[in-house]
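Q: Structure tokens for this one, please.
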Amino acid sequence: MRLAKIKTTVVNVPFVAPLRWSGGVEDGWSRCIVEMETDDGLVGIGETLGGAVTKLLIDSNVAPMFLGEDPFDLEKILAKTLFVPFYWGKGGLCAIAALEMACWDIKGKAVGRPLCHLLGGRLREEIPFASYIFYRHPGKDGGGRVANAEEVVAFTKELHAAFDFPAIKLKGGVLPPEEEIEALQALRAAFPRKRLRYDPNAILSAATLIRVGKLIEPLDIEYYEDPCWGNEAMARVRAKVDIPFATNMCVMDLDQLAQGIRMRSVDIVLGDLHEWGGLSNTKKLQATCEVFQLGFNLHSGGELGISTAAYLHFASSMPALPHALDSHRHHQAGDIVRDG
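A: Here is the predicted structure, written as tokens:
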């Protein structure tokens, strides 16, 4: 069995209402979908972050490294991609991830087994997710705005009436810190039994975040995600604040994982099947976190149905699943996967 054809398609699924974060405003995210066909007719699918630039990188640079290879020889293929992230950074890792995911899909189809069985076996049947709460501008119909503490709580109550999420994540870095603290306090009052996490997306200074951290300590925060930029600042703030620290921005590859462990900058690392270059690298990350007794969770970058399914299989095979996964799914206006 050899890989014979690779097709890459860019799709964009809009959000119900524009999402606000420290990097600006997003009204939808583009994803690349890969269809990979073998010479004996099996077709595997993969998905990754990014639009036209990611597609160009896949088609011109990474796909030729996969074509002609046996998808079961995945480590051999990945060895050829070693210098792709050296030149193309996270975009290179995301390009590799789409093709690697499609290889896993082909392997599962070839042996008639679900992905979780190839990753170690299914340990659980259900995977918990957190409600992901953003400040939002109104949508095209004028509704959906989330602009203050009262609207944050109202929107969260609406979501939790439909889905019994065990955890709530507030995406911050948008309003002045005092207003976001007010929203966290209101969420804790409205949901006293839910786990509560806060992610300012590395927008504030270390000094400000120490002050903010001390103010939110009494709220029993599950974790403080990327309050500031870089392992140096994270380590300084973590030493002063009695809340677990999580990251997907300061520890983004295996080299930075070693730095984060040595500097004691994080308690929980948020892996990503795309930004880490695929399931194989994310599995190495998860195992390293287990060895060094760091928490592990999966970050969300706007996954559609294909990547959400991959996340579910990965999480179902993890030895421990201490945190509910993140997902943008309840903000998305649609998907590319039909029911069934």
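A few notes: The two ends are 28 Å apart (CA to CA). Strands lie at 3-21, 24-38, 43-49, 130-136, 167-171, 195-199, 221-225, 245-247, 268-271, 295-298.
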